[in-house]
Amino acid sequence: MAKNWAIAIGINKYNYLQRLHYAQQDAERVQTFLEREAGFDYVLRMSEEAEDRSFHPTKGNIRRSLRRLAEKAKMGPGDNFWFFFSGHGIPEEGCDYLMPLDGDPDDIKESAIAISDITNILRGCGADNVVLILDACRQGGKKAGKGIGDQTTEMARQTGVISFFSCSPNQYSYEIPELKQGVFTQALLEGLSVQGRCATVERLNEYLTRRVPELIREHGKQHQQTPYTIAEPVSKSHLILLPKYATTADILSLKTDAFEAQTEGNLELAEQLWIRVLAASGGSDLQAIRAIQRIGIALHHPPIQAKPAHEVPSSAPVALERPQKSITPPPVIATPVKSGLKTFSFDGVTVDKKGKETERRKGEAEYFEEDLGDGVTLAMVYIPGGTFMMGSPEGEGDHDEKPQHRVTVPPFFMGKYPVTQAQWRQVAKLPKVKRDLKPDPAYFKGADRPVEQVSWYDTEEFTARLAQKAGKSYRLPSEAEWEYACRAGTATPFHFGETITTDLANYRGTDWEYEGKIYSGSYADAPKGIYREETTPVGYFKVANAFGLYDMHGNVWEWCLDDWHNNYQGAPEDGSAWVNNNDNDNQSRVVLRGGSWLINPAYCRSAFRDNYDILERGGNNDIIGFRVVCVAGRTFNP
């Protein structure tokens, strides 16, 4: 299990600086929280009221305590060391300093402690997760001008130290008498506790950015105080600070980072990230366990030169295959404040190239239900924002899936299933916006089957009516949103893994000859399957991807917002729909994703793209349906 150590320092009664009121109490509350709620193994608190004078926060005592703790800790990958300081901080000649109890503002270099020195000492403890929390720009310092932050920010970026700052460099960090607390520390403890449930750096950053100004307004103050966070490299933003509040999506983000590091050959970083996954899952994630074992073999047993089979002993170590690069880690993105959401549990599976199940896991996702009337609801699943590599890597996919490119997708909600015939009928009853809708257009009848034989313009009318009824921003997904949601952090052709079987999805599992070409009913080394020749009810296959979405591979193609382009040259990188069509011969064609019951497995891959005529209303499109998304703003209340 991971080690969790911390030091908390709070100074009120400075010898040579204006005294503070609640800094010591800040440190005391942080210590209490870390010990009782966060389950830290050891927390050292230093204050001027400590009975043991060696714990008084003088310069000598702080440096000595840090060195001894760093030497004693003997930490490693996945371990955490937090440093919390509440008191005065002062910049001097381009360097940032924390002022100890005996700090002299007239002799800063000699009497203060450079934050860079603190960071270097903490780095020596061996923990790969060092968290610096500085409530150290307190109002009332003798030196005017900018507060600390500039040099420490750059240092944090270079060293990978996660740093939380109570305010911007040109601001003060305020104490609130009514709270008997520094406003930043108040928000920090709220965010880390059950009130905020901020399991990750990313979510805590969002909470602090919103909550600190809110608390200041609540107490009638006119001050400006804007906290900020530095978490670089980007993977640090997904560090799980408090595992007990971690969601499936949080752990998925860590897995994404681990896959990326492993793909790029940075095995030591990948090992650290997988260890974090294992810690966050309580030691039960089989994928992490296997990855750590494989990386350990690769690190300690380098691949041998290939030899003819008869010359290689069966016990010889073999080179590990690297997964193809397909995912990059999500950055810190402001996720919406979600209220009124429910949670549901689901099963997920991973298969190998032969289609054999290698892992079965439980997942949990957040969602809301839209009441469509007559007992019919629409389940909308929360999809956390992130960054991924859209398209196929070299060696996989068609030319129109290239070039693989980085896309950042804001958070949104997506239909748990494709829109069903029951849901279509309810919305078709709503007041017309632009065009009439047939109440029962599908060829394969069934209330819980996906609706099909609907044009792109029909889906536009559907989402417009739904948005008007619900007062929310409903629409089709962009192509980038669709692929991001389908992949759900995976780096493989399917979210199930290296291949797919007809036990997991509805597609043509038999060979198919079309226009003289044979299309295989299997993918990779998986066996062929069955061909159902019709749609199946949504959720018929009782397994979802890591976001909690069903039927992303097969059953029906799904309309997207985007015009069709022959490749990704010039494609947007912000998750938006690409609607400025520059292909003169494709003016009326839009993107389809996901494959269908009619098509073979290669066409159901996460990255596969197809297109259809936007003007086509009827015809042989009993293979085309859709699912909707709902925009998630800064605040969202279903």
From TrEMBL:
- Per UniProt, what is one Pfam family of this protein? FGE-sulfatase
Single GO biological process annotation from the record: proteolysis
Which top-rank group of organisms is this from?
Bacteria
Give every Peptidase C14 caspase domain span: 4-228
User: Locate the Sulfatase-modifying factor enzyme-like domain: which residues?
Assistant: 379-629
Molecular function GO terms recorded: cysteine-type endopeptidase activity; formylglycine-generating oxidase activity
Q: What is this protein called?
A: Peptidase C14
Q: Which organism is it from?
A: Desertifilum tharense IPPAS B-1220
